Amino acid sequence: MMKAANNLKFMVLSIDGVPFGLIRRFMDEGVMANMARLAGQTGLRQMRSIHPTVSSVAWASYMTGMNPGKHGIYGFIDRQPGTYDMSLPNGRMMVVETIWEVLSRAGKRVFGMNVPTSYPPRRVNGILIGGFLTPTVDRAAYPPTESDYLRSIDYRIDSDAQLARRDKRAMLDDLDVTLAKRMEAMFHYLDKESWDFFHTHIMGTDRINHFLFEKMEQDDAEFAPGFRDYYRKIDAAVGKLLERIPQETPLLIFSDHGFCPIKQEVQLSRYLIEKGWTAPAAQIQHPLSIDPGQSRAYCMIPGRIFINLSGREPGGIVPVDAYQQVREQIADDLMQLRDPDNGDLVIRKVIMREEVYWPSGSQGPLRAAPEEIARMDGTFGRAADLIAIPYDGYDLKLGLAGKALFQKTELEGMHTYDDAFMVARGVELPENNLEIFMLTRVILEKLGVTPPADMDGAGNAITPDF
Amino acid sequence: MDRLDELESQSMYIIREAYYHYHKLAMLWSVGKDSTTMLWLVRKAFLGKVPIPLLHIDTSYKFPEMYQFRDEYSKKWGMNLLIAKNEAALAAGMTCEKKLECCTALKTEGLKQAIAKHGFEALLLGIRRDEHGIRAKERYFSPRDEQFQWNYQDQPPELWDQYKNQAEEKTHIRVHPLLHWTEKDIWYYIKRENIPITDLYFAKNGKRYRSIGCTTCCNPIESNASNVDEVIAELESTVTSERAGRAQDKEDAYTMQKLRALGYM
Predict the structure, then answer these.
(1) pLDDT tens, A279-318?
(2) Which domains are delineated in chain A?
């Protein structure tokens, strides 16, 4: 059986931030006919993302097969441990091996393109091309010589979100070009490379959902057709890909999180200031410019709240034995927050770090005293102490300087946790709760490669329901 | 010959080749482990009597330990030490708050000024191919134009130890004697030769620097490696990159712009 497994190839196409509900609708409406045909044979499933529901965290969890407590990526912005300075995590801070490295060690040829948090590209037996937040094409690829090809086709790493804020027509054109280049490169490598594991990522869906999700839902005359057209182009590429790979090649097509329209953006840091938990510094320079002597807690995007703990933070003022009490008080305050327009509650649930994260060496949430949880170090110790989960439509943001607690901006869509989609052909996935970090183990096992001992996704390593 | 002997003799060949070709040659010394290893090789290549000056680009933000080491060993080894500082930019208040601009002003401009002042034709630099992707394409002899630009798509082949070491005027040549070394090679060689290096590389209170530069842009890594042997043991098992504590800053400006556009900041 191992022998058969060793000859298998495995194909992944990931489409960022496409909700289960939307893809089902587009399948029904004929916008995504190829996907509909495929899902007709395999079924379409709903999948859970990760907390907090941000692409960098979701993809780090996918590529390592671990929860953030082990891989150490908790968001697009973090603090440098032991300081109140900001850091911007990327693949360098991921302290564990990725699926491409594990497969490379086992002698498999791998290919990965555009998956968020894969920059800087690690050394693999094959080719890795970085995605979102890769600064230039020249530095995107391992081996570096591959950037010559990428430059020759005028490859685009990512669409331009600044453009989206100015001109949505131009954004659609930019998304089209970016997608076309990605697909050109995908088919080029599909033909040219010998591979055992091939993963291509499409990021543009996340962008179009951020900026046009509401217009699509409202069937806006100007932009809803363009929105559908973009998904139609992706479906065409799926159709072409299906023609190019044998029917028996195991295949996953999935997203990393869902989306819903934004009702309000909520400046959670403003709320913490109003409730007396956070005191901003006299001069606000970045999202962590707080006055440590006056702040018992502070937050980072989205909904991640840190206790300014004595002995852990450089200017910590909350003693360890008050840790749990302070966490509960903050959670109570957060649960009171209401939308001024209609009086609706904003926060659905506040969870403690140990309820969703677990460190290296464990499989599933920890049982330990809060004081112990507060003091834990390593990657787990970098987690937020509390994570606020909003009701759909309330996008938790951060701005110490901003005076408005609630506001609407050009952004129209926000991420959701429990409605990513999954289409799997020739792959046996866990039957009940499916979470994004469970996929790695399945892929490795399908390819006959033993997963690293610390990898999650076996049995009881499951994020509880909230 | 064992591996370290091979690395050493290749490097010394390049150093002597450079000295033979260029009348005005200097070596850049950042005081880090690589350029200090290169300095060791230069001393060996010329049997202890080093005929070229050492150029240190001083941003004024280096670690105190680095200044101390620089002054101690340049004296001890009888070096002709030249220190270049972009005084104008420092006087104008250039600080690390503007990451990208800071490096350009204090390092690149500082070096340009020094080259103009001393008229150097060529510089020895201790870069290595394995440091990051773009350096993998470097040559041992690598010309820079007057804008300091390096055209990596237009490079001469370097086969059978034949180097193109002539370039057009208004350029200078960068010579990279350590190009073929890896981070681990450097450490094994430091061990074998007992080369002195600053103790910033060794762990204190659970942290050490794996790569050093300015205090403002270097972060220590978590480590308990407090001597050369322990550093080697650590490197044999690590999966993260050497410059993890450094390269980050230069990308941050770009990253923040992208995140801001998407509402993450």
Answers:
(1) 998 877 778 889 999 999 999 999 999 999 999 998 999 9
(2) 2-261+414-446 (3.40.720.10), 264-407 (3.30.1360)
Among B134, B239, B255, the residue with its CB nearest the CB of A88 is B255
Distance CA B261, CA A23 (A): 26
- Nearest-Å Rg of the Cα atoms of chain A is 22
Positive or negative, the CA dihedral B236, B238, B241, B245 is negative
Do A27 and A228 contact (CB within 8 A), yes or no?
Answer: no
Chain A residue with minimal CA distance to B265?
A398
How many CA atoms within 13 Å lie on the side-chain side of A253? 23
Residues of A within 8 A of B257 (CB-CB) are: 162
User: Residue B249 phi/psi, 5° resolution?
Assistant: -55, -40
Instruction: Look at the block and give the residue holding tokens 């992707």.
Output: B133
- Domains assigned to chain B: 3-175 (3.40.50.620)
The residues near A398 (Cβ < 8 Å, ≥ 6 apart) are: A267, A268, A269, A287, A299, A300, A301, A302, B265
- Distance between CA A301 and CA A76 in Å, rounded? 8
ipTM: 0.83
Amino acid at A93: M
DSSP for B10-70, written as a single string: HHHHHHHHHHHH-SSEEEE--SSHHHHHHHHHHHHHTTT---S-EEEE--S-B-HHHHHHH
Cβ atoms < 10 Å from Cβ of A465: 7
pLDDT digit string (tens) for A105-125?
A: 999 999 999 999 999 999 999
**Model pLDDT, residue B149:** 63
Pairing of strands A297-300, A304-307: antiparallel
Beta-bridge mates of residue B173: B122, B143
Give the Cα separation of A223 and A215 in Å (integer): 6
Q: In angstroms, rounded to a whole number, what is the distance separating the alpha carbons of residues A443 and A436? A: 12
Percentages of chain A per state (helix, strand, coil), in multiples of 5: 40, 20, 45
For residue A120, the chain B residues in CB contact (below 8 A) are 132-133, 241, 247
Round to whole Å and give the CA distance between B224 and B230: 8
Residue type, position A180, single letter: A
Q: Contact B153/A132, CB-based, under 8 Å?
A: no
For tokens 């943001």, name the residue. Answer: A397
Contacts of A96 in chain B (CB under 8 A): 239
Over residues A211-230, the pLDDT tens digits come to 999 999 999 999 999 999 99
Minimum distance, in Å, between the CA of residue B193 and any CA atom of chain A = 30
Whole-number CA gyration radius for chain B = 19
Of A92, A160, A265, the CB nearest to B248: A92
Asked if B26 and B120 count as a contact pair (C-beta separation under 8 A), the reply is yes
Lay out the sheet containing B172-175: strands in order across: B81-84, B54-57, B25-28, B122-124, B172-175, B141-144
> Edge to edge, what strands does the sheet with A347-352 contain?
A297-300, A304-307, A386-390, A347-352
Chain B nearest CA to A8, separation (Å):
28
Pair of tokens at residue A11: 């194909």
Q: What whole-number distance in Å separates Cα of residue A246 and Cα of residue A95?
A: 36
pLDDT at B202 exceeding the cut of 50: yes
Interface contact B255-A90, CB threshold 8 A: yes
